[in-house]
Write a structure and sequence with these properties.
Chain lengths: 238, 782
């Protein structure tokens, strides 16, 4: 997909450091980039490169030590807790490596939990169908496979109808085939619903499906490039 | 239903065991609170309403004799608005069994009304005259007397037949006790008969005189002024006692019971509520800790802090409201039973069993406030959870050596499993404290219960076995010379017989005063053993007096102090008598003097009005027709009454044990379940290492035992504190409960507490048995 003119995210000089015992850890060091609306972005980097920290700050779950994040020209990093909550509620959908479903709610109820607090959510049944779970919607997480649980997590995030999906190692806990199927679902959400998707991963082949790739190491963006011909997830092998 | 609420319902269903346990403590606390508060309110409102309707007297005066025409002249001065004279005395009620001692108080009464202390008619007719009399309901019921039945009284040495015209209640005899020395009502052995005044005058030779006057005051708050005025105005009639309403025996005992109930509502329920609050706060804290990731997800989704906090607070609110409703309902039902039970003791004809919305509201508010406060205390950490942080597994706690590990020599002797046990205990300090406190409170309450179980027996045994050891006490109909007792001795062939002089006097120390029976005994009496608080024997002094410790406390005096003795006897002035010693007496409140010295100082030389007897014989039939004998009391009979009383106390002791047990059970059960739930991964790892289920259970058992042991260390002083508090609040003119807790009572309490804790422990075994360690190791759902 071509980079659109409209910038959704603008990250400027973002730094984050924290103390771990006597040592100061610099998780992010003056990171800057932009993400356009509708892009499928993969942030690639090894463990400890700062990608999860970056994702958390972008999603309004954490605050930087320095720098700014703009979302649709609004400076998210200046938001107070109330505004950040509103931002997460309206504009962002999170998908986690370990799915983090609510154990004592069924698949459908997990999705409904998310849409209950949104103004213009998507249809829950439609989302469950879109992720291929219409038959399993009344099952509890403990009765589902990892892949199915991650599909529920995607449906839950997407059903809120957010501007962007932030996915933290969404295939990290899954086998290859299941991982590929999850990437297909994410691609589908990106294309069918026009949502911006940011996937962070340490798995380099996944970068081949992205419109744009940000490579990170030691808290810095080392490389920022665009794929001229993104692959279909089915073509990816690792 | 909102999905968060649905989650809450499922969470509660999953934790139903803990929830039920928590509710049990909450409900127990509230139902005790509601039941006792309502019973006390029922009793008090009924009592006051009865007093109002019957125009119950404000001041009661006992005197030698006053001409009946003088009584009306007392109205108008000293705030007195009404006065009613009467003649009253105690006399034998004659039964078919010559061995049975039954006394009645005969009271003169108006033919159809009394004005003050109006009688409440249960059955028959209020109209009396000649030998048609009214009988107090408790006595009539106990003796099976019905309207138109006939019975016989010994009046002025003659057998008199009476006919029951009506069965009545009197505000003066709500709690029917013969005197302050009686332990409890004996409705079959002591009653009250109301005889028409002129008829009584004619058969008892008391026409035209009264020996008691009851007064109504304009303002009862100014009773002291009226008492001072009456003391002056009635001096020439030989005032024996002036009793304000608050000290009137029946009223005093009834109010002591009400105050006892009210005092209980201020302590016992709060122990349970405090425990429930502690468990709830811990449960909520643990729940939030375990839900850390779920809370992070909710925050990531855009749920507000207050919504998530509210989600957990709803759990607390549910416990508060459910506990409040159940506790209030059960308490209200029980209050009805309790109030009915009071009918056995307190004859209040207008006793009402009512629902008090204010008590129900108070109970619900109390439950909600305790639960919301505890819930917030436990769940407040929701606010501090950062969504980003919560996505990562919690960093392991920084390890450090526990105190015990630093003592290398000792630590090296400890086995591996005990090392795990000690580390867990020291690292879970809050849980450690709560379980220990649970054990401490349970032990404390059980110690108090076992102490209370034995205290009445000890009081009785101490008083009638050690303190005084006569077989019979004979009451004479007035003051006689010692020779009268020697004459009695010839009639009954006693092993030992001593004369006695027992007269009520008002003792003063400055503004403090109290009316007590002063007892004159022969020097070297074989029937009384006086000892001080240290248990040292105290001989009867040749002059001065010995006083019981509760009297010393009441008057604020000690050995060597001078007391003013207000003397009501005609021609006798008030005198000052020195306290020669303070003695321990478990039942009643008295002063003791050497017989002859007391006679000389306070009555007249050589005067006696009773005798103490040691004999194996049945002396009652021998004394039945003896003119000077007013009554005979047997110690054996008192023991039988006491056993009856003990049966009743056993019920309440059983309740107390049950409630105390619930406390220990629930705390240990909830904490253990929480612990198992949180340590699934740890236990699963240990199972993988080869630990059996039994060994895992043993680990928890050992942890709880160590915590319980510490609970015991705290529980013993706590129990002593409870006992001290109970003994102080129960010590009155009737009882002196200063017996220390015995080691066997603490031992029994420890045994019961351990039993409850082991039972709770066993109840948790199922959780260990069903622990799926493979699932525990792979589970990542929140």
């Amino acid at each position: 997909m071509e980079m659109e003119n409209k910038v959704l995210y603008k990250v400027e000089g973002l730094s984050k450091s924290y103390q771990m015992g006597d040592v100061e850890v610099k998780a992010l060091q003056e990171v800057s980039f932009e993400i356009g609306e509708g892009e499928f972005v993969v942030i690639l980097g090894p463990s400890g490169s700062g990608k999860s920290t970056l994702l958390n700050i972008m999603g309004g779950m954490d605050k930087p030590s320095a720098g700014k994040v703009f979302f649709k020209e609004q400076e998210v990093t200046r938001y107070d807790d109330r505004k950040l909550t509103q931002f997460r509620r309206r504009d962002v959908g999170f998908i986690f490596q370990f799915y983090n479903l609510i154990g004592n709610l069924t698949a459908r109820e997990n999705v409904e939990l998310a849409v209950e607090i949104c103004d213009e959510p998507l249809d829950v049944e439609e989302m469950l169908e879109a992720v291929g779970l219409e038959e399993r919607s009344d099952h509890f997480p403990a009765q589902m496979s990892g892949g199915e649980q991650q599909r529920v997590a995607i449906a839950r995030a997407a059903a809120k109808n957010p501007e962007i999906l932030l996915c933290d190692e969404p295939t990290g806990a899954l086998d290859f085939e299941t991982g590929i199927s999850i990437l297909q679902v994410l691609k589908m959400v990106n294309e069918r619903y026009g949502r911006t998707v940011v996937v962070i991963t340490h798995n380099a082949p996944i970068a081949q499906m992205a419109d744009r790739v940000l490579k990170m190491r030691s808290g810095k963006v080392m490389e920022d490039y665009r794929n001229s011909q993104p692959l279909d997830p089915k073509e990816i092998v690792w | 239903m909102k999905k968060l609420n649905l989650r809450l319902v499922r969470t509660m269903r999953h934790a139903k065991g803990q929830l039920a346990a928590l509710l049990a403590v909450m409900v127990t606390g509230l139902f005790i609170f509601t039941a006792i508060t309502s019973a006390a309110t029922n009793l008090q409102t009924s009592l006051e309403s009865y007093y109002d309707q019957s125009n119950f007297g404000d001041v009661f005066v006992e005197l030698m004799h006053i001409p009946s025409q003088e009584v009306d002249g007392l109205v108008g001065d000293g705030g007195i608005v009404e006065a009613k004279g009467r003649y009253a005395f105690t006399t034998p009620f004659l039964t078919d069994d010559p061995k049975e001692i039954v006394n009645v108080r005969v009271v003169s009464s108006g033919s159809s009304t009394d004005g003050i202390n109006e009688l409440h008619l249960y059955e028959g007719s209020r109209s009396i005259g000649e030998n048609r009399v009214l009988v107090l309901e408790k006595f009539a019921t106990a003796r099976g007397l019905e309207v138109e039945d006939r019975f016989h009284l010994q009046i002025a040495g003659q057998r008199r037949e009476m006919v029951v015209a009506g069965i009545v209640g009197s505000p003066e005899y709500i709690y029917l006790m013969e005197n302050e020395q009686a332990l409890m009502p004996r409705p079959g052995k002591f009653g009250v008969v109301f005889v028409e005044e002129s008829y009584l005058g004619s058969i008892a030779g008391t026409g035209g005189i009264y020996n008691e006057v009851v007064f109504k005051l304009e303002d009862r708050a100014r009773s002291k002024e009226a008492e001072d005025h009456l003391e002056e105005a009635l001096d020439r009639y030989g005032v024996r006692r002036i009793i304000p309403r608050k000290d009137q025996l029946s009223n005093n005992v009834t109010y002591q019971e009400i105050e006892g109930l009210q005092a209980m509502t201020r302590t016992v329920p709060f122990i349970f509520l405090f425990a429930a609050g502690g468990i709830l706060a811990t449960l909520m804290g643990r729940m939030v800790k375990n839900d850390r990731m779920a809370i992070g997800v909710l925050k990531a989704m855009g749920y507000r802090n207050r919504t998530i906090l509210g989600h957990y607070m709803k759990f607390a609110l549910f416990v508060g409201i459910t506990g409040g409703i159940l506790g209030t309902l059960l308490g209200t039902v029980l209050s009805g039973f309790m109030t009915q039970l009071y009918l056995d003791f307190f004859a209040i004809p207008l006793l009402e069993v009512r629902f008090y919305p204010e008590n129900i509201v108070a109970s619900l508010v109390l439950a909600t406030v305790v639960c919301m406060a505890s819930g917030f205390l436990g769940a407040r950490n929701v606010l501090a959870i950062s969504p980003a942080e919560s996505m990562k597994p919690e960093a392991p706690r920084q390890g450090h050596r526990i105190l015990l590990e630093r003592i290398r020599f000792l630590w090296n002797q400890v086995s591996f499993t005990w090392k795990i046990v000690f580390r867990n205990i020291f690292r879970e300090k809050k849980k450690f404290l709560l379980v220990s406190l649970g054990g401490a409170f349970t032990l404390g309450m059980m110690t108090m219960t076992f102490w209370m179980n034995s205290i009445y027996g000890v009081l009785f045994e101490e008083h009638y076995g050690h303190f005084m050891s006569m077989d019979y006490t004979i009451h004479l109909d007035g003051f006689f010379h010692e020779r009268a007792v020697r004459d009695l001795g010839r009639l009954i062939e006693a092993d030992h017989l001593e004369p006695k002089l027992e007269v009520p006097f008002e003792l003063y120390n400055g503004a403090k005063s109290g009316v007590v029976n002063v007892v004159g005994l022969v020097q070297g009496t074989r029937f009384y053993n006086f000892s001080d608080a240290q248990g040292h024997e105290v001989p009867l002094p040749v002059d001065g007096m010995l006083i019981s410790s509760n009297l010393a406390l009441k008057l604020g005096v000690g050995e060597g102090d001078l007391l003013r003795v207000r003397n009501f006897l005609p021609g006798k002035e008030d005198s000052y008598i020195r306290v020669r010693g303070v003695i321990e007496q478990t039942l009643g409140i008295n002063a003791y003097m050497e017989l002859e010295w007391m006679g000389t100082q306070l009555v007249e030389r050589g005067a006696v009005n009773g005798a103490l007897v040691a004999t194996d014989q049945e002396i009652i039939p021998l004394l039945e027709d003896v003119e000077r004998v007013g009554g005979v009391q047997s110690t054996e009979e008192l023991q039988a009454i006491f056993l009856e009383f003990m049966d009743l106390t056993l019920v309440s002791i059983g309740f107390m044990l049950f409630f105390s047990g619930i406390l220990g059970f629930v705390i240990v059960y909830s904490m253990t379940i929480m612990s198992i739930h949180e340590r699934k991964l740890e236990f699963a790892s240990l199972r993988v290492l080869g630990f059996t289920r039994g060994e895992l259970f043993g680990l928890i058992l050992k942890e709880n035992l160590v915590m319980t042991l510490l609970g015991f260390v705290m529980g013993v002083p706590l129990g002593l504190f409870f006992v001290e508090a109970v003994s102080v609040s129960f010590t009155s003119d009737l009882y002196t409960m200063n017996r220390p807790v015995q080691p066997e009572e603490i031992g029994l309490a420890m045994l019961f507490t351990t039993g409850c804790i082991l039972l709770a422990q066993l109840a948790t075994y199922k959780k260990i048995r069903h622990l799926d360690f493979i699932e525990a190791l792979k589970n990542r759902t929140t």
